[in-house]
């Protein structure tokens, strides 16, 4: 559930419009320190900077969408002009600013999750709407670092289910032309005007809308609202229960002559109807939920004993989930099959039931061990290729960083090579959007 924290000076003033404007200047980047003036090109913040559509601030649009800025030059003057009509959004500010990178790295270390990034949202105070009702794919901590902003957060509902999974046909709502109506969401959970120095926790998939209307009286030092949305990337990089099951099913069963894997397909079809399958994996600080023995341990993924405890706990978790969701049949796939690739006669299935279950469990353990060992590599990859303080990004100009950062987030291999296709898509005939 969402909640608000009072953090005072720990958050207040940590990032402002003036600091963000410095990202448009070469002096803010180490890579330009020794380059001559004539070789410098104007900084556009390609892939990072955009403005929300002016119609949103005028309460004429009901979908969270970006303005077309392909021909807009990124200058202080153009930014200030854009702020008169909409919200300035910097995606993955951690890839541009060492200060924002350190904030993300602090949460990465505290929660022991692989990828943590931050978006920055800056709006003028007293704007009727800064973001219409919509959902996001991340668990986020929103830090109000300048000015104030009103947050309304609603519960999920049958029309807007909890914990959406993108490749199960559950995309973000209220974006890119899709309109999310109040009648579709659950009850109002939180209606709070977040003041400078306060933080709100926003769970993944919970509908929310923001505004800075009637907030100027709360700020005496600035006429802008600046907030950092620091997000724990889990579902968006494939770290959910359904994908572990799909990967294990695929490794065990493989694809038939039509390029299909029936076990993985059954799991995918069941995902939208079963909330627990859409849960993020209990990794990092949540690992103790499936392995209470880790309660007092420091989670060092290099420790074989800790790995064994977590894998054992996860196997039990998946087995319980299989029964709860009525997915026992997926354990049967991969044995003797008929000509069409489906399992053979019932008597053979019954005779092989125990060995099939054992084989699937073996595949599951293999996947889980691989993932446990991948987590520290993922954190290192994030620090080097997603944070501006890393040895890779700090050697690259800001307009060339987005491609490197995005590739690190999308392509990091959390799953074994032979099973990754099933975690991303259970059939080569059914491609899904890139995570």
Automatic annotation (TrEMBL):
It is an enzyme of class 1 (oxidoreductase). Keywords: Dioxygenase, Iron, Metal-binding, Nucleus, Oxidoreductase, Transcription, Transcription regulation. Residues 92-241 form the JmjC domain. PANTHER family: MINA53 MYC INDUCED NUCLEAR ANTIGEN (PTHR13096), RIBOSOMAL OXYGENASE 1 (PTHR13096:SF8). Belongs to the ROX family. This is Bifunctional lysine-specific demethylase and histidyl-hydroxylase. Oxygenase that can act as both a histone lysine demethylase and a ribosomal histidine hydroxylase. It is found in: Nucleus. Its EC number is 1.14.11.-. One of its GO terms (molecular function) is 2-oxoglutarate-dependent dioxygenase activity. InterPro entries: JmjC_dom, NO66-like. Pfam families: JmjC_2 (PF08007). It comes from Cladocopium goreaui. Its cofactor is Fe(2+). It comes from the Eukaryota. Binds 1 Fe(2+) ion per subunit. GO terms for cellular component: nucleus. The keyword Transcription applies.
């Amino acid at each position: 559930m969402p909640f608000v924290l009072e953090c005072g000076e720990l958050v207040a003033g940590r990032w402002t419009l003036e600091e963000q404007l410095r990202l448009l200047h070469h002096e803010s980047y180490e890579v330009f320190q020794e380059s001559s003036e004539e070789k410098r090109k104007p900084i556009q913040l390609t892939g990072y900077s955009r403005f929300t559509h002016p119609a949103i601030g005028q309460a004429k649009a009901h979908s969270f969408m970006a303005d077309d800025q392909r021909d807009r030059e990124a200058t202080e003057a153009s930014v200030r002009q854009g702020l008169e009509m909409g919200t300035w959004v910097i995606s993955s500010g951690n890839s541009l600013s060492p200060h924002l990178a350190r904030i993300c790295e602090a949460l990465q270390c505290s929660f022991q999750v692989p990828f943590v990034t931050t978006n920055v949202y800056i709006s003028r105070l007293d704007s009727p709407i800064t973001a219409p009702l919509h959902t996001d794919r991340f668990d986020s901590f929103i830090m109000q670092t300048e000015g104030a902003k009103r947050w309304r957060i609603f519960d999920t509902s049958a029309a807007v289910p909890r914990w959406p999974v993108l490749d199960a046909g559950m995309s973000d709502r209220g974006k890119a032309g899709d309109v999310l109506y109040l009648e579709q969401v659950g009850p109002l959970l939180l209606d709070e005007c977040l003041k400078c120095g306060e933080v709100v926790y926003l769970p993944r998939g919970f509908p929310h809308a923001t505004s800075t209307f009637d907030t100027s009286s709360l700020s005496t030092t600035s006429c802008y609202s600046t907030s950092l949305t620091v997000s724990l990337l889990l579902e968006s990089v494939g770290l959910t229960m359904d994908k572990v099951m799909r990967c294990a099913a695929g490794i065990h069963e493989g694809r038939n002559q039509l390029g299909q894997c029936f076990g993985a397909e059954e799991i995918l079809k069941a995902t939208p109807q079963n909330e627990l399958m859409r849960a993020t994996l209990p990794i990092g600080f949540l690992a103790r939920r499936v392995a209470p023995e880790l309660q007092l341990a420091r989670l060092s993924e290099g420790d074989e004993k800790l790995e064994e405890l977590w894998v054992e706990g996860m196997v039990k978790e998946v087995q319980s989930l299989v029964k709860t969701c009525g997915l026992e049949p997926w354990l049967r796939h991969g044995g003797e099959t008929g000509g069409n690739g489906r399992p053979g006669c019932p008597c053979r299935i019954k005779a092989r039931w125990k060995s099939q279950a054992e084989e699937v469990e073996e595949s599951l353990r293999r996947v889980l061990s691989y993932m446990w060992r991948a987590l520290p590599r993922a954190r290192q990859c994030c620090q080097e290729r997603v944070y501006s303080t890393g040895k890779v990004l700090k050697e690259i100009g800001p307009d060339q960083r987005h491609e490197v950062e995005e590739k690190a987030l999308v392509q990091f291999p959390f799953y074994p090579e032979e099973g990754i296709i099933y975690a991303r898509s259970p059939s080569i005939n059914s491609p899904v959007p890139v995570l």
